[in-house]
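User: Could you check the structure of this?
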Amino acid sequence: MDRLLVLVRHGQSEWNLKNLFTGWHDVGLTDTGRAEAKKAGELLKADGYKFDVAFTSDLKRAQDTLKIILGELGADNLPVIKDQALNERDYGDLTGLNKDDAREKFGEDQVHIWRRSFDVPPPGGESLKDTAARVLPYYETEIKPKVLAGEKVLVAAHGNSLRALIMEIEGLSGEEIIKRELATGVPIIYRLNKDGSVAEKKDMAG
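Assistant: Sure, the predicted structure tokens are below.
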């Protein structure tokens, strides 16, 4: 049985380009982001991947990435499940701030802690630990059972919601996952064992 799970971070967004903290703010893709999504679809198609169901967040940058990928795969009619459980980490009071301006306002060390610690949230926002607390129950109840039943599942989401998933799938610690960088628009392919552990992993970067 092929237990296939493919994760894709959305393509570059308008606020990625402007170096702003985005979080739950609903911004669109740039031309570069749309091209990244198209390339992701082309890579998956070239390797012969087909899917039974797709999941995405409640934010259009992830939804649009997924739509472009499915278009490249000729899978426009694939069932798509959207849920805010897969949304990006909520950056709270940092949302909309330029990352350099935030460093000036709060200090470089403090901003680094908010961005790169596992369990320290920015004011009014979520830490990666908080993000995992909503992403992982959704994965366990909605996504993982489909994969283990043999459905081929595609997830288009965000850097931090996908970090939370990867932490669970690969059995990483909080310290290990915060060091993991996820490129925009690059599929990560997992084949899982029947207990949900990783049988095989392939990163389509480069």
